[in-house]
Design brief:
This protein has 233 residues and is α+β, with helices and mostly antiparallel strands. It is 41% helix and 23% strand.
Length: 233
């Protein structure tokens, strides 16, 4: 991950601290829970490889997908600041995690202002992702919502080194996108067929290919972040 141009470099003292902060690595099988809403954990994690899903389960049993954390994203910061998790995180593929003891986060804030800023940046980024998604769900027609979801995820995956050319290999299903963008599965399926009919995007099996990225950007109104280098822990 440190070789990818999209991630900022550590200062030598920061790298030394993070190496000591890390207590190990964990492999999680697809379909397993990493965090459960209402529970707590002594750990927090950085995603090293794989796809995960952050979601809330409503009282009526329905699921609202909040976002899809990818390589470099931090899981469990909420668990450090609150008594319990307010959402769940599930592995959508086999996932490799970097494991940290959550008590060590306070030493990070005390000793490393740069890393503390990075954590604040990542928390603000999560808020911005939720805000953009909420705006799309609340104000966009269905076709624009799905275009937004696809181009947003593709852009994040590309920055994390998880795409090949114009193609992204992903475990996401139409149900995942429907639950993320406030659509019924039937409506999502019909809308996706219309979007594919434009010739701008292809979705076959687990491969999503952007055939005309410019058109998708125009349709969705998605704006790429201006900062090309992002932090991770």
């Amino acid at each position: 991950m440190r070789l990818l141009e999209s991630f900022r470099a550590f200062e030598p003292d920061e790298l030394s601290f993070v190496e000591g902060f890390k207590v190990g690595e964990l492999s999680v099988q697809a379909g397993s829970s990493i965090f459960l809403e209402g529970h707590n954990s002594p750990h927090l994690y950085t995603v090293l490889d794989g796809w995960t899903m952050r979601y809330k389960t409503l009282e009526n049993g329905k699921r609202q997908v909040l976002n899809f954390p990818l390589r470099g994203d931090l899981l469990g910061l909420q668990n450090v600041l609150f008594d319990t998790m307010l959402h769940s995180v599930e592995a959508l593929t086999e996932v490799r995690l970097c494991v940290f003891q959550r008590e060590g986060i306070w030493k990070l804030f005390e000793k490393h202002a740069g890393l503390a800023y990075d954590l604040t940046w990542m928390a603000a980024r999560e808020e911005s992702i939720l805000a953009e998604t909420l705006a799309a769900v609340g104000q966009m027609p269905a076709r624009e919502r799905l275009a937004f979801a696809i181009i947003h995820l593709f852009d994040r995956a590309r920055r994390a080194g998880m795409t090949k050319g114009k193609t992204m290999l992903t475990p996401l299903t139409q149900e995942h996108l429907a639950d993320a963008m406030g659509l019924s599965l039937v409506h999502a399926n019909k809308t996706l067929q219309k979007l594919k009919a434009t010739g701008w995007v292809a979705w076959k099996g687990q491969e999503i290919t952007l055939l005309d990225e410019r058109k998708l950007l125009e349709l969705s109104g998605y704006e790429r972040p201006s900062n090309n280098r992002r932090p991770f822990i």
